Amino acid sequence: MKRVYVNEEWCLGCHLCEYNCAFANSGQRSMVKALLGKPVVSRIHVEEGGGISYAVSCRHCKDPVCLRSCISGALHSENGVICIDKSKCVGCLTCVLVCPYGAVAPGPNGAALKCELCLGNASGEPACALGCPNKAIVYEDRR
Question: What CATH number is attached to the domain comprising 91?
Fold first, then answer.
């Protein structure tokens, strides 16, 4: 299965992945209308420290502890992609606590928020990978 991989040695720390993610998941046709004057709500985030920067994104684990810990059944797997049904999420954020990668975060409305590989994206590729100028984020199958 294809997944998002990060080559941290190529990451510039530009945060464009966060902006592209927020725009792709905004439902807007214009990036300006989607993001201007609004908080950037991204499903991927850049961490920086020790002279390196890297993007943190859901790894869509084969045996996801977040899915097993979800008390409401909001987390589910769609062909190996771990997704959140926001209408079922009760905001307990247990998934945030148990994710070993720090890839699940509280969303602005109280429900958990995580990468779903831009399943609804017309390009068929996650926006973070498409918008990364240095190809530090790639979407590929690495078996």
Answer: 3.30.70.20
Buried b (16+ CB within 10 A) or exposed e, 68-79: eebeeebbeeee
Which has the closest alpha carbon to 46: 107, 102, 127, 125? 102
Convert the pLDDT of each residue in 87-120 to its tens digit: 999 999 999 999 999 999 999 989 999 999 998 7
Say which residue the tokens 């606590």 belong to: 97
Q: How far apart are CA 22 and CA 40, in angstroms?
A: 6
> Which residue has 């008390």 as its token pair?
71
The alpha carbons of the chain give a radius of gyration, in whole angstroms, of 15
- DSSP-derived letter for residue 131 is T
Specify the amino acid at residue 131: G
Residue-range definition of the domain harbouring residue 135? 3-140
- pLDDT digits 0-9 by tens, 113-143: 999 999 877 677 899 999 999 999 999 998 7
19, 42 Cβ separation under 8 angstroms: yes
Query: What pTM did the predictor assign?
Result: 0.91
Q: How many domains does the chain have?
A: 1
